[in-house]
Amino acid sequence: MSELQEVQITEDNALFQDPLKAAELAAKLMCVQEQKHSIETPYGMVTVTIHGSPKPKRPAIVTFHDVGMDHKMCFETLFKNEDMYEIVKNFVVCHIDAPGQEEGAAVYPVGYQYPSLDQLAETIPCVLQYLNFPSIIGIGVGAGAYVFARYTLAHPNTVEGLVLVNIDPNAKGWMDWAAHKLSGLTSSIPEMILSHLFSAEELSSNSDSVRQYKTAILSSPIVSNNQLYWNSYNSRRDLNLERGGDVTLKCPVMLVVGDQAPHEDAVVECNSKLDPTQTSFLKMADSGGQPQITQPGKLAEAFKYFVQGMGYMASSCMTRLSRSRTASLSSEGNRSRSLVPSPRAASRGEDQQERSRR
User: Fold this and answer.
1) What is the domain-level CATH number for residue 42?
2) Quick check: is 1 in a domain?
């Protein structure tokens, strides 16, 4: 754990007249208080990184990353964006690295039996028990989104909300399997992972951001570990979600995908299988395959609305989206219904405000 630094703040400090600066300071203090834990699970050692401390009567925000990445590559841009400062001030944040995917991980021996995505979902109860988190808001990308969906189906009472980016709820069909095999004959594992993360247009345009991730993935010292996670993702089972059926996500869900992203059709299909009164679908313009990296400010603002709809941060002020809601973010499905606090959520927020006044 990093050494804590003492910070003197007096009542007449200018920070108290500038909420954004105050929130920024809080976020920096949380970075100072970063903690890392290695947690033993039935399916391997899981590394978690904690920012901040648990808040009474508030869920923890827990993340799970996509293939070819660790939590820093997947989420650092989003959580260090200024529009996330107010959120990280109000919630403890926990980043989970899948076994063998964390920075500095040892390379697994040849023949190592890597856990399936279903088994990775069952590492989450071990993490929550170890950290004593009674409930969470999950944020997952790609394979991590699938892991959170699978976990929530098995443990619905511990999940208050989900943000699922680029989720594909379906198992690979025979055509997908054949295409994957053919691709493996002509492309390396890092190249296939890159085509999973980014659109063909992004890879050809080779922007600074994409170039940075290309370099990191192509030169990864644990590419064989990355391949194991990649293989588990491609062997996933169908979630069998059914709108109005027994197998469904019962908590509030925000589905996110970039316009023209590789997983756009899969996310659209997932949206059609979920309860429209509990689900919001955000198709983000100009964000490509990784909206949490290319459009972190817009996603942070959407996440604020989502959290407010759950009854938290009722007094939070909107910035970016309130100024240019229609220009910066396009959405489909039932966005307006799900992003506006429900009567129950509004009541919870009013109760929280009343308790704070007392």
Assistant:
1) 3.40.50.1820
2) no
Residue 2 placed within a domain? no
Cα separation, 293 vs 210, whole angstroms: 10
DSSP string, 16-32: GG-HHHHHHHHHHHHHH
Q: How far apart are CA 234 and CA 268, in angstroms?
A: 19
- pTM (2 decimals)? 0.81
> For residue range 99-149, what is the model confidence (pLDDT) as tens digits?
999 999 999 999 999 999 999 999 999 999 999 999 999 999 999 999 999
Beta-carbon contacts of residue 217 (< 8 Å; ≥ 6 apart)? 68, 190, 193, 194, 197, 226
The closest of 169, 328, 337 to 259, measured between CA atoms, is 328
Nearest to 25 by CA among 36, 41, 14, 35: 14
Segments of the chain assigned E as strands: 35-41, 44-51, 60-64, 93-97, 136-141, 159-165, 253-258, 279-284, 330-332
Other beta carbons less than 10 A from residue 7's beta carbon:
9
Residue 344 lies in a domain: yes
Structural domain includes residue 267: yes
Question: What's the structural domain count of the chain?
Answer: 1
